[in-house]
Structure formats: structure tokens, C-alpha cells
């Protein structure tokens, strides 16, 4: 990480003064907001001040950051010129209302919603895939975080595309209910209990029962029969990786609390052997390959929950197309699919010297 460090010596002690940042999280009480707080602490991102922001109805609620408890402030009353970095995870409507205003006030906004992902003046970033695009952040002081399913997909595709150029991809997702927020997780929990005679199983968050079921529908239908969730995946992959990749997607909601899975079929321009693909993926950043021909030689969402990596399993030849491979890709959607990627973007901004450090120094005494 690119923290700027200044060492001072005196007859009595050595002081290392580390520049830290003033950080605000909008949507701090949500699933992803809480994960952002946890991961900033886990990765030792240099924070001098932390502010938790939410809507007026959540004002006064408390969240944890390390050993501290922080009381949520009302976004309407907050002065954004007093912070250096804002992590935004409060949905597209809030982001469309606030992100550009916040950017003009000075801090850089890392936005987890879909509001600015297609904006040509806003970089859409997965640090393992297109870190060089971060330079565009200064245009609006906004960086977009991709859709949770896209993030893990492009991490797996990038090294293979560099090696053999992907012509076409077919992706079917198996997306957990946490992708729909706390309400989605509550609905799965309540419906599961209700089916055993302990309550009402009527769908509220999802259009049909999610417990013991799968729903081939996420988002809203478009005129072409695809959903906007499916369109996000190809739009974002084209923006970050390569607009020439032909990509078709079916997004499915499954009764899993945390962790998205994807069955991926790839067609390449040149032959690529399973062993070569496995070696390429093992050497790639952010990926763990768990691929043994054994009963438990693959990763499931339960295995990936709480982990940082994108896991790849079931790497095998697809004999139905020329130069084809099949993959199984799994990741914790609240982490790499959202909060972790946002914090990694913050680390990238720090490494590139793109965050101002008006918050001064934190002083650590050593020796």
C-alpha cells in the first residue's frame, strides 16, 4: 500500500508519522457498508477519522469500526468537504443524488451502485483487471465498483483472455440472497422457518418463493427478454475487459445466504489446454484454484464465505466448440463482489497518490 511515511528521530525516541485519511461510508448500516468497515480494518487501510452516514431514519444507529463504535450521522447534514474519501453503498437513487455533489466538494467517491458504471467519464475498476483506468477518476472524482457477479467473473477471465483471447462466453449465475440486501436474507430465513410450520411464507422481497427454490430472474425485464442484471454483466465486462467478447448471461437467484457462483463456458481464439489454463489461473492475482477430481475437490459458496479470493474449480475442456473450456467460479459477493473490491480501489488510489491527505498525520512511537 502506498502510505507516505515520515520518520523523525530525537534523543528520546523515534517517531514514525503515517498520513491517514478521513473516510466516510454512506449506507454504513447495510450489509455491504458493514463489510466495508470490517475490511478497511482488516487490510489496515490508513484511516485517521471514520464517519458513518445513512438516511435520516437510520441516524443514531451504531456500527463498529475496529474497537470503536460509531454513531451514524444524517447524510443531509454532513459536510463532505471535511473528508478525503467516501465509500458509497446506499443504492443507485442515493448515488445519483449525491455522488457528483460529493465529488465536487473534494473527496473521491467509490460508488457501489450501478449509477455511474456506464458513464464514460467514470472509471469502472477491478484492480486485478484494469488498474490503469484509475487515472480517469479525476474527471468527476468518482470511481464505480462493478456488479457483484461481474467482479468475480472478470477476475477469472482476465488472465485467460490475455493468454488466448476469449471470443465468446456463456455465463449462468447462481446468486445468493445477500445480493438483494438484508431484506433478501431475512426473506430466505423467514420462508425456511415458515415452510416447517412456523410462519408466513408469502414472498415479499422476491417475486416468488426463494426457500427451497431457484428464480431465473434478477432485476427488471428489458424489452429483449433479458434482465437488467444480465445486461450489467455484459456491459461491464465489455467496459473493463474487451468490447469484442461475445457474452450471453442468465442470472438466477438461489437459496444461499452468501456467495455467488457462476458456470462459465469459454471459447478462445487459439487452443488452450486444461493444464495450461489451470497454471495461468494459479499464477493470477486474486484467484485460488481448487480443482481436484475428488468428491470435495471444488469450492462452494459456503467454503468461499468470508474469504477474499475468487475461487475457480471444475476446469475442463468443452468438446462442443473449437478451443473451449468450462469453469466454475465462486466468490463471497459481499467481499470481492462489493466491499473488498471497493477497499482495493481505495488502496489503488492511495498507491497512485490520488487521495489528498489533508487530515494530517497519525503518530506512532517506536523504540
Would you kindly provide a written description of the structure presented here, covering whatever features stand out?
The structure is a single chain. This protein is of the alpha/beta class. It has two domains: 5-146 and 339-366, Rossmann fold (3-Layer(aba) Sandwich), CATH 3.40.50.720; 149-333, Dihydrodipicolinate Reductase, domain 2 (2-Layer Sandwich). The protein is 29% helix and 27% strand. The chain contains eight helices and 17 strands. The strands form four sheets. The chain has a six-stranded parallel beta sheet with strand order 7-4-3-8-9-10, sandwiched between helices. A six-stranded mixed beta sheet has the order 12-11-13-16-15-14. Strand 15 (310-318) and strand 16 (324-331) form a beta hairpin. Helix 3 packs across helix 8. The two termini are 23 Å apart. Residues 1-13 and 359-367 have low confidence and may be disordered.
Amino acid at each position: 500500500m502506498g502510505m507516505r511515511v515520515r520518520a523523525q528521530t530525537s534523543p528520546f525516541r523515534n517517531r514514525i508519522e503515517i498520513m491517514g485519511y478521513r473516510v466516510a461510508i454512506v449506507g454504513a448500516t447495510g450489509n455491504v457498508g458493514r463489510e466495508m468497515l470490517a475490511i478497511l480494518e482488516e487490510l489496515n487501510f490508513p484511516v485517521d477519522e471514520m464517519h458513518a452516514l445513512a438516511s435520516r431514519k437510520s441516524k443514531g444507529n451504531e456500527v463498529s469500526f475496529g474497537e470503536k463504535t460509531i454513531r451514524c450521522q444524517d447524510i443531509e447534514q454532513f459536510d463532505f468537504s471535511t473528508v478525503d474519501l467516501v465509500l458509497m453503498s446506499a443504492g443507485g437513487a442515493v448515488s445519483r443524488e449525491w455522488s457528483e455533489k460529493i465529488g465536487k466538494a473534494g473527496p473521491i467517491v467509490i460508488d457501489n451502485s450501478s449509477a455511474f458504471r456506464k458513464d464514460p467519464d467514470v472509471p469502472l475498476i477491478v484492480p486485478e483487471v484494469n488498474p490503469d483506468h484509475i487515472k480517469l477518476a479525476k474527471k468527476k472524482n468518482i470511481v464505480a465498483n462493478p456488479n457483484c457477479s461481474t467482479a468475480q467473473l472478470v477476475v477469472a477471465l482476465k488472465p485467460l483472455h490475455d493468454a488466448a483471447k476469449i471470443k465468446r462466453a456463456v455465463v449462468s449465475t447462481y446468486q445468493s440472497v445477500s445480493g438483494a440486501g438484508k431484506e433478501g436474507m431475512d426473506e430466505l430465513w423467514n420462508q425456511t422457518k415458515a415452510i416447517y410450520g412456523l410462519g408466513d411464507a408469502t414472498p415479499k422481497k422476491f417475486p416468488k418463493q426463494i426457500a427451497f427454490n431457484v428464480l431465473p430472474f434478477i432485476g427488471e425485464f428489458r424489452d429483449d427478454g433479458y434482465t437488467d442484471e444480465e445486461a450489467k454483466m455484459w456491459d461491464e465486462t465489455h467496459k473493463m475487459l474487451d468490447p469484442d467478447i461475445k457474452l450471453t448471461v442468465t442470472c438466477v437467484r438461489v437459496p444461499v445466504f452468501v456467495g455467488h457462483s457462476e458456470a462459465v463456458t469459454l471459447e478462445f481464439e487459439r487452443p488452450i489446454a486444461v493444464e495450461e489454463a489451470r497454471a495461468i489461473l494459479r499464477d493470477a492475482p486474486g484467484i485460488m484454484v481448487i480443482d481436484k477430481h475428488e468428491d470435495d475437490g471444488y469450492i462452494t459458496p459456503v467454503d468461499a464465505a468470508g474469504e477474499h479470493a475468487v475461487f475457480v474449480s471444475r476446469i475442463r475442456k468443452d468438446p462442443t466448440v473449437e478451443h473451449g473450456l468450462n469453469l466454475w467460479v465462486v466468490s463471497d459477493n459481499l467481499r470481492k463482489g462489493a466491499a473488498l473490491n471497493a477497499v482495493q480501489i481505495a488502496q489503488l488510489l492511495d498507491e497512485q497518490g490520488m487521495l489528498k491527505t489533508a487530515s494530517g498525520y497519525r503518530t506512532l512511537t517506536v523504540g
